[in-house]
TrEMBL record, chains A, B:
Catalytic activity: sn-glycerol 3-phosphate + NADP(+) = dihydroxyacetone phosphate + NADPH + H(+)
GO biological process, one term: glycerol-3-phosphate catabolic process
Binding positions (NAD(+)): 150, 265
Annotated substrate binding sites: 116, 265-266
Keywords carried by this UniProt record: Lipid biosynthesis, Lipid metabolism, NAD, Oxidoreductase, Phospholipid biosynthesis, Phospholipid metabolism
Organism: Epilithonimonas hungarica
Sequence ranges assigned to domain Glycerol-3-phosphate dehydrogenase NAD-dependent C-terminal in this UniProt record: 190-328
Short name of one Pfam family: NAD_Gly3P_dh_N
Active-site residues annotated for this sequence: 201 (proton acceptor)
Name recorded for this polypeptide: Glycerol-3-phosphate dehydrogenase
A Gene Ontology molecular function term of the record: glycerol-3-phosphate dehydrogenase (NADP+) activity
Claim: NAD is one of the keywords in the record: yes
Length: 338, 338
């Protein structure tokens, strides 16, 4: 078991792994409270660009950083050694590549995942990956859930995060380092439920985008989302029963924002497919990773194993991985929704 | 107790009271199945215009009717006498004016409310108004709930209705007369719950519009909606406990479509207020009745009586009826949401 984070929030050393839009948004949040933020970015180019320009060269370019407060590296061992809390915010497909380089001591650190996807090589969620491959127990893990599109953080528009973590002291510290006039933080004990729901909502957002691309209207999408949250509840109850209200912001709120917002890349991927793009060309046309694509494969496998029949997940899987017609699959799906 | 509707759906005589957009949409739905639809419109001008042009002169003007199948009147007694099922689809503020003219025998009829508002003179919901003023018991009542914006029905975009009614036979008949290739019908026994939730969602939609008008973004609105459905559940449990899942389409779906759709007049009213219009000028600028305005007063009174503290309802009430600043009320509200 890990050393407790006995430091005060002012002194706790926090770092972020990743240089995409959500990682950049988290660095911005942390800088509101922390004297220094450690930031491990993808490569020397990104590091140099941030140090020269004061902003991420590719994502949230309007967010300017006080460079004196940033400690930028490309070395995950430097990041982890220098920090008590490490916020993981790389796309799930790149997580293993980074983590496999980890050689320093990390057993007393808190790993906090802001990743909403499946680790493809292991076809499993991040919490399990960290536990199984790195012996990081759930007491040393936390999950950061939304609804929180990074683009709105950049604009300092009020957003709510939910931090799921086992120990109340850790929850307090995470709340304090992340809170600001535009970020409010809820806390929760449902680490795995929050992680699974964050993954599922990306699949549902792809489906919402497909429906929209196919020409279904607002009335239908509302019915679709109300079915999606019920499906999500069925999944969570089957996989990880826990006293939870799926209508809390981290579950329903995150589902809604991802299914409706034009900032949602998963919704946009679905929309292209609904409009007739092939899955391959839709993915290629996007500059950012749509986590839901990989998640669909992993979650579908779990459903199959657990004999869960979830009509929306099935329809999205058949469209993305079985080459089935979006139009036909959704026509069938409409009969299964209520 | 009423005579049962023993007729087959093909022969059941159905009528609609009202000539607004939702009434017009319902007439369109019924014409897919019924040989004749009885339609009681507001006045002779509307009657003449429909008979001459084949469409409603003001609402859903693109919907053309087969006039041979329409029996149009301005006399509620003619409507009720000629029908087994009467669908009430006038704005709630005009319902009493119509119903007070009722002199014919109506005790064996099924009154089906598609109204989502409070009857202002009685400050009560339609189901209670019909029961208390006309001795129409709940066994002779039904409620039609959405999510179903009339504008999308006009476009024949797939929509789902929920019909809440006590008797299964009546549910079957209503399902059959309303279903078509663009309308799917769920059934429910929760008559009062469906009516209350349809009223509440209009208040929440005004609040969503206010937030949007004030500049709050997608992340916040998603948190707001997830709080709204929890508030709705608290209200329904307090007023009318019943085994229900508020994530069913008629509750959550209807809330989402009303809070998000640009077709939502309640959302639009809120949006104008959020942008700085006075409540009075915002109402005056709209050509259609925003039910949520009147509903806020009625629901707030119920909350006060039942000592229910519902932060969103309170904030919307204070803005609409107490002249308080939308900006300040929402700033306070953000601390109460989770």
């Amino acid at each position: 078991m890990a050393k407790k984070l006995t430091k005060s929030p002012k002194n706790v050393r926090v770092g972020v792994l990743g240089s995409g839009s959500f990682a950049t948004a988290i660095v911005k949040m942390l800088l509101e409270n922390c004297k220094t933020v450690n930031w491990c970015v993808r490569n020397e180019f990104v590091k140099g660009a941030i140090e020269q320009r004061g902003h991420n060269p590719t994502y949230l370019t309007t967010v300017n950083f006080n460079l004196k407060k940033l400690q930028i590296t490309t070395d995950i061992n430097e990041l982890v050694s220098n920090c008590d809390v490490i916020i993981l915010a790389v796309p799930s497909i790149y997580l293993a590549e980074s983590m496999e380089k980890l050689t320093c001591d990390y057993q007393d650190k808190l790993f906090c995942s802001a990743i909403k996807g499946i680790v493809p090589k292991h076809n499993d969620i991040v919490a399990h990956y960290l536990r199984d491959e790195f012996k990081i127990g759930f007491k040393n893990q936390a999950v950061i859930a939304g609804p929180c599109h990074a683009e709105e953080v950049a604009m300092e528009r009020l957003s709510y995060l939910t931090v799921a973590v086992a120990e109340q002291d850790d929850a307090d510290i995470l709340r304090e380092v992340l809170s600001s006039f535009y970020i409010k933080v809820n806390t929760s004990c449902d680490i795995l439920g929050n992680e699974y729901s964050a993954i599922l909502k990306n699949i549902y957002a792809i489906g919402a985008g497909i429906a929209s691309g196919l020409g279904y209207g607002d009335n239908f999408i509302a019915v679709y989302v109300s079915n999606a949250i019920r499906e999500m509840e069925t999944f969570l109850e089957a996989i990880y029963p826990e006293k939870r209200d799926v209508n809390d912001s981290a579950y329903l709120g995150d589902l809604i924002v991802t299914a409706y917002s034009l900032f949602s890349r998963n919704r946009n991927l679905g929309n292209l497919i609904g409009k007739g793009y092939t899955v391959k060309s839709a993915i290629q046309s996007m500059s950012m990773v749509a986590e839901g694509y990989y998640a669909t494969n992993g979650i579908y496998a779990i459903c199959k194993e657990k004999k869960l029949k979830l009509p929306i997940i099935n329809a999205v899987y058949d469209i993305l991985y079985e080459g089935k017609s979006a139009e036909k699959q959704f026509a069938k799906l409409t009969d299964k929704l209520t």
